[in-house]
Amino acid sequence: MCGGEDLDALGESMLNRRKMLAVGGAAGAALLVSYGWRSSLMAAPPGPETHDHTSGPVVLSSPPFALFAARMPVVPELAPVARTSTSDLYHLPVVPRNIEILPGLPTPVLTFGGSFPGPTIRARAGRRVVVAVENQAASPANVHLHGGHVAPEHDGHPLDTIAPAATRGYFYPNTQQGATLWYHDHSHHTEAEHVYKGLHGVYIIDDPAEVGLNLPSGEYDVPISLRDALFDTSGNLVFSGNPRDRDVILANGVPVPHFPVAARKYRLRLVNAATERSFTLSLGGGDEMIQIASDGGLLPAPVARTEVAISSGERVEVVVDFARYPVGSQVVLYDATGPVLRFDVTHTAADRSRVPATLRELPVLPAATVTRDVVLAFDRTTGSALGVVNGKVFDPHRVDFQVRRGTTEVWNVHNADVEPAVPHNFHLHLVQFSVLSRNGGPPGPDDLGRKDTVMLAPGETVQVKAHFGTEHLGRYLYHCHFLKHSSLGMMATMEIVA
């Protein structure tokens, strides 16, 4: 239990923007959290970058390493430093580290909590979380809970950053259903590099309403954060240049590793934490995976898939039954470009889990009363690439859409970058949406369920439907989630009004 101020009062004080709050630490030491709220939402942003997002030095390849040599770790879960009957408090520092990613080479990274990727936060639906983020790095940073239904002051607005040596709190009510979310830096013009350097982690909302489904759990419920990287000969992460040069795939921070499994069912929570990459994932031999969830939680029913595609920021949950393979088998998870991870079936284990025919009914959204168009593109008329939404570069002082709380809207999202052809994807803060159509036809197999991020190939149009029945009012973002694109201005603001 918490010594000092009760976390219920702590949460309220944060929402009321008190300057200081104190809670008891896990070892009994007081943790002092400064919550000096700054009016950075009204500050002028730095000027947009003027170089093309594909420019920079060309680096052909990272130093060689042996495939499947290292074991994929299960990223540790962050332990609360204090608890009450309704709330949990976490301490999450932003810490520079040197770690070994490629064998024998130290790599400077940015971390949450000292680990790469950051520690998993496992919350509970209906139970509140407060995260005290202490910035021990040399540059401003912040945290966006991607997929979270949170108040605007806790959404990690790009201009609302934590200065070096400062600490602030984020309040997450977890009023949504169970889902695999993730958290990452969202500081404007530096979000892409910060996430690439390591500022990201998985955030899981466990839902008591789903316990009776008896899906694989405990050690058989494994989050897997996927991303790409490029290293120079000294082991440094190379951020500049073309993202297509990033030739090393990392699973939970380890290059193309192996992972021992039992001959039984596993729930794999796949998170695309790359800044500008899509994965098309399949098992060797075309074996089936059973998709049970997407960005916003469980599907109505399981769907057998031989491959799943996830773009930057998307999540998908699959169940793989390794009981169909003899002990000693090696099962490789492939991307379209090559191997990602090898599962080594090393032993048998009891398995009382199941994948029921019915998972969780999706809410029926009310009829839409507003239709909007969103066009993502690069403006190259000045000779350099500026990201634009509906022809406009991001301006934090401008409200692009005003959305009335309690209404339902249809958005037609279009990727206008056909020549030259550039893929984009679309992320909506605050709420999830349903995909109604893709290019005028039915949704694709990767559009299932409650989504908050969706892929758009050059020239594609995706129609989505969202209900803004939220308790929160204020300004939120929508943008391309290829983070270099958003850092170049491909981002806009909606305001939820009463």
UniProtKB/TrEMBL annotation:
Pfam families per record: Cu-oxidase (PF00394), Cu-oxidase_2 (PF07731), Cu-oxidase_3 (PF07732)
Keywords annotated in UniProt: Membrane, Metal-binding, Oxidoreductase, Transmembrane, Transmembrane helix
Name of the molecule in the record: Multicopper oxidase
Domain Plastocyanin-like, chain residue ranges per copy: 98-209, 237-324, 384-495
Entry-linked InterPro entries: Cu-oxidase-like_N (IPR011707), Cu-oxidase_2nd (IPR001117), Cu-oxidase_C (IPR011706), Cu-oxidase_fam (IPR045087), Cu_oxidase_Cu_BS (IPR002355), Cupredoxin (IPR008972)
Domain of life: Bacteria
Parts of the chain that traverse the membrane: 20-37
GO molecular function term, any single one: oxidoreductase activity
Family: Belongs to the multicopper oxidase family.
